[in-house]
Structure formats: C-alpha cells, structure tokens
Design a protein that fits this description.
The protein has five helices and no strands. Helix content is 59%, strand content 0%. With 114 residues, it is mainly α. The relative contact order is 0.14.
Length: 114
Amino acid sequence: TSLLWSQDLCSSHLSSGINAEYGGLIKNAQVVINQFDTFLGSKDYFAGDYITGTDFIVFETLDKYTVLEPTILENNKNLINWMDRIKKLPTLNKYFNEPTTRAWPLNNKMAYFK
C-alpha cells in the first residue's frame, strides 16, 4: 500500500488533500523504516558483511523519504549509520561531493508534488 500512497501523493487530482495524504504516507513509512532498522541491527549491510543490490534500493528509497521528512530516521540509529556507510563508498562519496551534483526532483515535471 505504501506505493499506492506515493502514487496518490504525486497525482495532481489530489492537490487539495495532499496534506492528509502526506501524513498517512509518513506514518505508514515509519512502520516499515522501524522494521528495516531492527532487521539491519549491527550488520554493515542488509545481507551481512557484503553490500548487495538491496542496499542500493533501500538507500534510494530512504533518501527520498528524508527529503519528504528530514526527521524520519531520527530514532533509527542503525539506518543512520548504514546510510553514512553507503555514502562513504568511494564512488558514491565522489558523486555526493562533486560540485556539479545537484538534487533531482522526486517526480517528473507533470506531477503536482515535486
């Protein structure tokens, strides 16, 4: 259902109810984020000692949620440390610290919510 919340949040026909949709999206996301934090525990990566594609998918998703709600991870220290580890990977560290790197919109130009 989280994907449907995201789709609804980005649809222009819901512009009048966007605040209500946003609140539900964040509340539902927090439940899953807490589960991710517990699952990750003290492991370096979701599969243990080695990074996998899952880490990149989860990173991108959580990064988007921190744009929507900057404090969403504040009670999830395992995820905060894990995200820092991902950002410090050599290629990503270079990317995030390039002066030409810019923040991309979360949605396409036709979406109400950007």
